[in-house]
Design brief:
By secondary structure, the protein is an alpha/beta fold. The protein is built from 12 helices and 12 strands. The two termini are about 25 Å apart. About 45% of the residues are buried. Bound molecules: nicotinamide-adenine-dinucleotide. The site of nicotinamide-adenine-dinucleotide has 22 residues, from helix 4.
Length: about 350
C-alpha cells in the first residue's frame, strides 16, 4: 500500500490540503495517509520548522503532499528556524533534484492570462528545472571582505556556477522520459555562447539524446527562451534547464496561465519519490477565510499519482474532473470573472469530488 506523508503547513496550507485529501479519499484507493507538522506550525509546536519526526515520515513515505509554509510573523526568527527552511531541508534531505512545473492554460481561464487569448489558449508546457546544483549550490562563494573583515565594506562578491556530468545526465534523462510521455519534443535551455558550464550542459544533453531518438531535441539560449515564452509559448512542449534559469523561466511561464492558484508542482529524486505542492505560498492575507483556490494542490495530488504512485489513470481522472468543474463555470475568487459570485475552498473541493464520479 502506498504511503503518503501529508504536510499541510501554514496559512492556507491546511485549507487547500484538506481538499486534496478529500479527493484522494474519494478515489477509492487504499492509500495510507499520515499527517505531520511542518513550517511555522511545527516551530510553534516542536521548536523547529522541520522536526525530526516529520523528516522521518517524509523519508519513509512514497510521496509527500505539501501545502505551504511561511508567515510574516516569523520574519524576525533566525534564518534556520524560519518556516521556509522546512522546504529547503526536505529538498536537500531527500535529494529532490528534478522540479516539474507544468504551465497549462485552461480554455475557460484564457481571459485571466496576461497574454492575448490566441497565444495561450490550449497552452500545455512542462518546465523541468534542475533543483540541487548550479550557481545556487556552487563553491566557492562569498564576499571579498574589507581589511577589517566586515561585510559592509566589501567591494566584491562572487558565486560559482558548476554542474557535474552525473547531475546533467540525470536531469536530462528525467526530461527526455517526460517528453516521451507527452509531445516528444524537448528544448534544452542554456547560455552556451557565454558560459562554459552551459556549453558542457549542452554537450551532455546532446549525448543523452542518443538514448531517446524518438524525442526531438533542440537547444535555445536562455534570453531567447524568455522571449519565446511570451512571443509564442505554444512552440514548447518540455523545457529542461538549470536551477537558476529554471527558477526565472518557470515563474514567467506561470503568468501565462492566469492564476497562481492553478499551478501544481512536483520535485522528484532518483527513486521516483516526490514532494508535491502548489507553486504558491501560504497566502497569509487570505488564510482562515475559506476562499483560497485548492486546485493547484488538487492538481499536485494528480501529479503525485502519475509520477510517484504509478496511478496515471487516477491522475487523468482528477485532471478531467478539474476541467469539468471549470467548464461548469465554478470559480474561486482568484479566477472568478468580475461581477461573478465565487465559491469557497471547500465548495470547490466538493465540486471536484462530485465531478470525479460523473
Ligand atoms: P503567496 O503565493 O503566498 O501569495 C501571493 C498572492 O497570491 C497573495 O495575494 C495570495 O492571497 C494569492 N494566492 C496565493 N495562493 C492562492 C490561492 N491558492 N488562492 C487564491 N489566492 C492565492 O506569496 P507571498 O504572499 O509572497 O508569501 C506568503 C508566505 O508564503 C511567505 O512567508 C513566503 O515565504 C511563503 N512562501 C512559501 C512557499 C512554499 O511553501 N513553498 C512558496 C512561496 C512563498
Amino acid at each position: 500500500m502506498s504511503k503518503i506523508a501529508v504536510l499541510p503547513g501554514d496559512g492556507i496550507g491546511t485549507e487547500i490540503v484538506a481538499e486534496a485529501v478529500k479527493l484522494l479519499r474519494a478515489l477509492g484507493e487504499p492509500f495510507e495517509l499520515e499527517f505531520a507538522d511542518v513550517g511555522g506550525t511545527a516551530y510553534e509546536r516542536h521548536g523547529h520548522p522541520l522536526p525530526e519526526a516529520t523528516l522521518k515520515l517524509a523519508r519513509e513515505a512514497d510521496a509527500i503532499l505539501f501545502g505551504a509554509v511561511g508567515d510574516w510573523k516569523y520574519d524576525s526568527l533566525p534564518r534556520p528556524l524560519r518556516p521556509e527552511q522546512a522546504i529547503l531541508g526536505l529538498r536537500k534531505a531527500l535529494n529532490l533534484f528534478a522540479n516539474f512545473r507544468p504551465a497549462i492554460c485552461y480554455p475557460e481561464l484564457t481571459a485571466a492570462a496576461s497574454l492575448k487569448p490566441e497565444l495561450v489558449a490550449g497552452l500545455d508546457i512542462l518546465i523541468v528545472r534542475e533543483l540541487t546544483g548550479d550557481i545556487y549550490f556552487g563553491q566557492p562563494r562569498g564576499r571579498r571582505t574589507a581589511p577589517d573583515g566586515a561585510f559592509a565594506g566589501a567591494d566584491e562578491a562572487f558565486d560559482t556556477m558548476r554542474y557535474s556530468r552525473p547531475e546533467i545526465e540525470r536531469i536530462a534523462r528525467v526530461a527526455f522520459e517526460a517528453a516521451r510521455k507527452r509531445g516528444k519534443k524537448l528544448t534544452s535551455v542554456d547560455k552556451a555562447n557565454v558560459l562554459e558550464t552551459f556549453q558542457f550542459w549542452k554537450d551532455v544533453v546532446t549525448e543523452v539524446h542518443k538514448d531517446y531518438p524518438d524525442v526531438a531535441l533542440d537547444h535555445m539560449y536562455v534570453d531567447n527562451a524568455a522571449m519565446q515564452l511570451v512571443r509564442a509559448p505554444k512552440r514548447f512542449d518540455v523545457i529542461v534547464t538549470g536551477n537558476m534559469f529554471g527558477d526565472i523561466l518557470s515563474d514567467e511561464a506561470a503568468m501565462l496561465t492566469g492564476s497562481i492558484g492553478m499551478l501544481p508542482s512536483a520535485s522528484l529524486n532518483e527513486r521516483g519519490q516526490g514532494l508535491y505542492e502548489p507553486s504558491h505560498g501560504s497566502a497569509p492575507d487570505i488564510a482562515g477565510k475559506g476562499i483560497a483556490n485548492p486546485l493547484a494542490t488538487i492538481l499536485s495530488a494528480a501529479m503525485m499519482l502519475r509520477y510517484s504512485l504509478a496511478k496515471p489513470a487516477q491522475a487523468d481522472r482528477i485532471e478531467a474532473a478539474v476541467k469539468r468543474v471549470l467548464a461548469q463555470r465554478l470559480r474561486t475568487a482568484d479566477i472568478a470573472a468580475p461581477g461573478a459570485s465565487p465559491i469557497g475552498t471547500a465548495q470547490m473541493g466538493d465540486a471536484v469530488v462530485a465531478a470525479l464520479s460523473n
